[in-house]
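Sample pair:
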Amino acid sequence: MTRPSTHENLSAAAPRLRDLAERRLASARVMQDLSTREDALLAAVDAAGRGEIEQDEVEVVLAMHLNAREACLNSMRTCDAEWAAGAAAIDQLQSSDRDAIQRIATELFDILEAIQATDTHFASELALRRRAAGVEISRTDGSRAANRAYAPITPTPRFTDRRG
């Protein structure tokens, strides 16, 4: 049995690297699409703070959003080892293959940078709005307790009363 030449290994590696790059790019695009919906999620959090939507419903939607993002990240991570091994040999590929893979990787990194910026904004806004909603809930609960404590006393029947 003859061993394949290095050239044959590299020619097989180029399409595989391109495929891996395209799969990672597709996952990043899905994450980017998810990040465009974060304003709607923040609006839902605001609506829950105002009592227009149940808090549990908003938590379910937020969990679904985060699970979808995690699935995209896991999809990108599944081929990390193979990607790193192929990237180490990228200098040995033909320039046309190398350029195609590099274009995909550049677009991928641009998308990931944009996602990181929106993630930072989303996380800070979400924390701020949750804090504000918590204060509002505490204030509402406090006013209910105060209302109960200082409400006029109404006579309640006692078991010892013999009146009718």
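The chain has a mean pLDDT of 80.
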